[in-house]
Write the structure tokens for this entry.
Amino acid sequence: MGDFPIESLGNKTPLQAAMKPHIDLLAQKGRSGKFATVPLDMLPGSEIANMAVLGYDVKKVFQGRGVLEAASMGVELGPDDLALRCNLISIEDQKIKNHSAGHIRNDEAHILIQHLQEKLGNDRVTFYPGVSYRHLLVIKGGINDFFCTPPHDVPGTPFMEVMPKANTHVRETNDLVSELILQSQELLSNHPVNIEREKTGKDPANSIWPWSPGNKPAMKTLQESYGIKGAMISAVDLLYGIGIYAGMTPIKVPGSTGLYDTNYEGKAQAAIEALKDHDLVYLHIEASDEAGHEGNAELKTKTIEYLDQRVVKYILEETEKMEEPVTIAITPDHATPCELKTHTHDPVPFVIYHPGIPGDSVVAYDEVSADKGAFGLIKGDQFIKLLLDIK
């Protein structure tokens, strides 16, 4: 949800422009601050940011996005397996048009990934279908000694300028991934799924883009670290992967899309139900991030209003009925400014409402108001400790 002031919104951020009385009520009742979720020397990805929200030392445990999505998909990684997130993307005039192949449907994407597995898969290379444009590539014996540019960071860039780059003279895995990208373009460009998509004015999924390579990480569970039982609700494999390594119960809600049309009500209801037998419920909603990647300020504002009216309102009403007080926190994992269409390191506003503990002077939830919050600027595991009231 984090952003910069936008001219079309009257030089307000989407959080400032949105009508969000229930989120603002949380800010009035709770205490606010800013959270630097990603170290400046690491890429501001969702994987790093969400692990930080859960209190992990990302520099010690982060092993790439692919391994987290593998865990979510039930793919067991061996000690020498290299896992990479594998996007289906759209390339136009040799440039990356978008990172999502126009938010391709699951059924279309699965046909394309299966086609790639049949043509390019072997004893060493395996493609696994995921959700929409988000898939998995596993290379047995792959060496994690190369850099892959996240495709959402470089829309409009000639793809050859951002192909994988080896960090040392060890080039074998780097060259294999580069070759798979080029081979996928040959195989996908005239595939019937893409021909039909183009006929109907949709972006073709005419290339793969593997990135964020890593090996299986070693992470303590929330039970081991804090003595709590957690649940994860999302529409994104990445979040479920983090949750699995964190020992959290994965709860999947029908109609969760990761977009503005997600099942907000169903996710809110699932969160309240999960509170009956979990200490911590992590409810992740992706819609504002995707609107930011599209550069659509009006849609991003609308997703915040949906969050307020269709999620936060219900959760406030239901938790007030409970005998045991419930702490509620709201935070973006990172900023995704519409102007840039990608993630940034900017600290994000957060609020934590502990029933029975007086709030601060903040009366609205946004980037500017949060600067005046009682919590100030935090980083590392400070957020989870504030949330759990660990001194």
Summary: The chain has a mean pLDDT of 96. The chain has two domains: 7-62+218-387, 72-214. Residues 72-214 form one domain. The chain is about 35% helix and 20% strand.
